[in-house]
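ugh ok fine here u go
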Amino acid sequence: MSAPPFCHWCLRFLLLIVGVLGGSSGLAQTVQTRPSVRLAPGLEPGRGGRVLRVSVSDEAAFQKWLRQNKPRAQARPEPRYARLWQVRGITAAELTQCPYVSFVEAADRTARPERQLNGADFGANKVTTVHARYPQLTGQGLTVSVKESPLDVEDIDFKGRLLSPAPQGPMLNSHSTIMTTLIAGGGNSGPGGKGAAWRARIAQSSYDNLLPDDVATLASQGVSVQNHSYGVSVENFYGLEARAYDQQVLQRPELLHVFSSGNAGNQPAAAGPYAALTGVANLTGQFKNSKNTLTVGATDALGQVAPLSSRGPAADGRIKPELVAFGDGGTSDAAALVSGISLLAQHAYLAQQRKLPSAALVKAALLNSADDTGRPNVDFVGGYGQADALGAVETLLDGRFREGTVAQDQEQIFTLTVPAGVHRVKATLVWTDPEAAANASATLINDLDLTLTSVADKQRWLPWTLSAFPHLDSLSLPARRRPNRRDNAEQITLDLPAAGTYELRVHGYQVTQGTQAFSLAYEFESGLQWVQPTSARTLRAAEAAVLRWQWAGPASTAQLQYRPVGQTAWTTLAASVNLQEQVFRWTAPLTPTLAQVRLLTGAGAVESDTFFVASPLMTQVLYSCPEETLLAWERVPGATQYQLYRLGATHMEPYRLLTDTMVSVPPTDAAAHYFAVAPRVGGRVQDRGLTANISPENNGCYIQSFLPTQPVADNVRFDLLLGTTYQVQALTLERRGTDGSFGSVHRQTSVPGTSLVLTDPSPVPGPGEYRVRLDLTNGRVYYSSVETVFFVRNTADVLVYPVPVVAGEPLTVVGPQDQALHIRVFDLTGRLLLNVTTSSSNLQTLDTHGLGSGTFLMRVSIPGGKEVTRRILIL
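structure:
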């Protein structure tokens, strides 16, 4: 009897079932194909000319092997890294013939920024809510390192907070400056220049080296967060760089590295276990496959993951990215925002514990507080969800975390008392895991297990775990409760828990040696609260705004209402909004006002902070003179006072509190250069407007501009723009005479406005030099710059000057406006010496070198056939 036909579809179905039920089970691993374990996936074995990074077991023996077998190869050790070498002049395949080489990868990949557009909305991740509720959390005393190309060290938003601010090299783009502003901008330039941790110190580092920076240098700078908003091509393996980052966090447990996931979400996976699968495993850099770091994807303002945001899994099936955040410019912005949030979380812990938290604890707080997005619970697109700055900060401020250690088969038990009415219990376990071998198919070394148990009935809940089987159907399956054997982070949620006592158990399932430290964060989600608007940020009048709230409860609707402060009646903005959507787009009113919004549910009304609606208040420099600078701004309805600020050592500082909308600043105070103003409305100072640079180099002393309407014309007219008419007694247009002095050609004692047209009623043919004189009521006199105008009696006239001219000096010919001229120069014998046709410019400069001295005739042909002859004398 013959064997039944082989069923390919049946085998495929069987493998899918294995992937679904077993995640990265043994069978699933056996069907994954890889290149040689000593070569990085995707590295071309026979390609020469590349700089390769190799890990070696015996450095002396490796050098000896190179001298004997490849004497022309160039090799040097990687600074600070034992048994890592850079090699040139040999192929990867040839290196694998060396018995002392453990792993080979490319070292010459070029990092590039991962940003596309510009924009920021700190409400999407509740940063502005933290600023409003916890103004003491600013990142002060902490240091962030931005690993990038050089940033703009002159940016006033970084003033006084840059460590070693000397430029590292020419600025290639503004990317690093934007990232640093999102993380730690001081807001000195205006509200849009304020970052999440706006008082943190800033260190710079170069991404030319993709390995981690020197840990001693980072420690000496006090760096607790390093931002990495860059990537290379799509890489899907655990390489020497990923391994080095995991090692560094073990060396300095409080150091958190934050990476952008990449903007390659529509690209197929690179070489490796998920090779060629569409739209998965496309992180842009093997260093982002590290375990003890954070990788961040991007969402839009409504929390939807951006299509181009790179997604996981990591090469061994781990969850990547772990978080997403709003990134209008892509994952670069999102990572920078999470770096800033991490600093706020560190500051919250430091304020209470007087020491820095471990990176594992900060990760646990961030992952546990994240708002779920995309598929329920965790997935390979949005990770654990949208970063929530408020939730992370309050987790640490409220002490909703535990830390401990476990050894093999040991267990730590933590008791939770869950009150009635909780919508969801959530708990997240994170630990800093030892580094794995390069290109390991499974990188988890120490495996801990988290379970939630009800004390009353002994019911048990396991973590949410994903299938990592290399098939698109498996990777898109929802998370299921089962043991997690891949990730060094595990999360459990329980909806609608019964009130009572529960236990969180941390068990050492596999601890290779000694003990493993861990961090555990938890929260009880329930109720409705406003996120945006807040009292910390003014909404712009007549512009679109996004109202945000947080809802933890069943599907429900509410009525959305608005009310200016002082009025009793509420206006309905929407009769029914879905609370689960948690956002509503609204155009703010045109009139400046203090206001509130509220959500009206069956359980009552939940009101927002009192917020201010207004257009940005602009500081105008009316004049910047040696004796004083005069500033002014528009009056704001409802404002009782105005707070004037000036730039101090690091940030804008209160300067003067005024009731007027104009102020004179003396020269000693004007030396600060940067000033801004904010209205005081409703008993509190609102947002500052944009900052003005009041330095004389950027502003005139009364006279903003003085320019001829046309440099060559049959009339002489000037456009004059004044900063103000305050104290102006008289205005005079003056012309320089033949004796070199200026005399009045027009004077007026009534100055009707700041924009004027001045005319010389009796101009003299040829070039004329003019200026404006201002006489003030206090006796001061100010002059404009001198401007030259060429007056011609009619549009066909031609001017030639200077006559006589010194040999070698330029001779200028002025003709009709916007007309080409044909110029010929003859000596007195009729010999042609110069023949030039000009462009349409009415000014033409002729070189007199080579003409010699004497008298010459110039003939200028004007469009229309007329020819003009001028006699010139060269001395």
